[in-house]
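hey can u check if this looks right to u? its 363 residues, i copy pasted from the old doc so theres a chance i mangled smth
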Amino acid sequence: MNHYAAIASALEAENLDAVLLTGEANRFYASGFFTPGTDATALVTRQDAVFFTDARYTEAASRRLDGAELREVKPGKGLADQLKEQVFLKGIRRLGIEDAVMSVQSFRRLKKALSEKGRPTCELVGASEPILKLRQTKDAEELQAMETAQGIAERALEDILKEFRPGVTEKEIAARLQYLMLHYGASDMSFDPIVVSGPNGSLPHGVPSEKEIQAGEFVTMDFGCIYGGYCSDMTRTVAVGSVTEEMERVYKTVLAAQEVGIAAARAGVAGKEVDAAARSVIAEAGYGEYFTHSFGHGVGVEIHEAPNAASSNETPLPAGAVISAEPGIYIPGKLGVRIEDVILITPEGRRNLTRAPKELLVL
């Protein structure tokens, strides 16, 4: 799976001769081959693509790369020399760079490498936005990978629920979730799992601790995995032993808010409108001050990417985007509830990629 052709079309629209991809996410999106950190660089022009990496990855890259020339970076002919050579041979005059991720130091080094007698051989132009816009719309292969990742996470959830009992710690549940997702085929986690219980549930991004789960508490699990380079993301909150009237009321409010927000989502609707639809349900129930984050965020190569269903996003959601739907209520020092699915935005509305049940579960 690569997206060289889509990037080439974007270059023409942006009046760029080429783009240099130095960040992990966009480099993978272009090539379909993952390399960590700064261990590779991809140069995509309107006509072709060149993938630069060192001897640690050349054999693996030769097996995976399709549609790009592979060049090995080595002593005596490093990346700077090879880039300069390619810029000259391909007549590149306007070169896009990932200004959203490139450090000032890296920019200065690149500018110096692509200069001759103190004068730049090409113009460096910020080009993060066009690539990020491309990534918002998922194609069939991307969706297949994301649905597989989602299925793996849901299978892990089904297993972990059988292991709940008072005395099990948050850390133990988080560790088992990671093991189970890897066991069922994930290549990695989308992020470190969040497992919080009882009063810790009021921490939206709380870190799993040695705290033991007690009867009469909620346990919130936010987790996801990577398959084929694409992320899944989901949250389920369950109760152990029993629930109070307040716990049940909070849970039902969050679930109702999620359903209203999902129903409001469709192509052409601004992200802030989706957020507002869900937020109004929670506010009307008297918990408005306890919903402290946005309704959702884009999911894809990265766990957080555009577009967002947030109060600040006035841009219409595009068809083909995948976003999370995750309202929550967090009462400090007392409890928290979050329920999260991921949905595909379509011209007609939306399709929920998450199949795990959401009714209040008391284990």
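Residues 40 and 233 are 27 Å apart (CA to CA).
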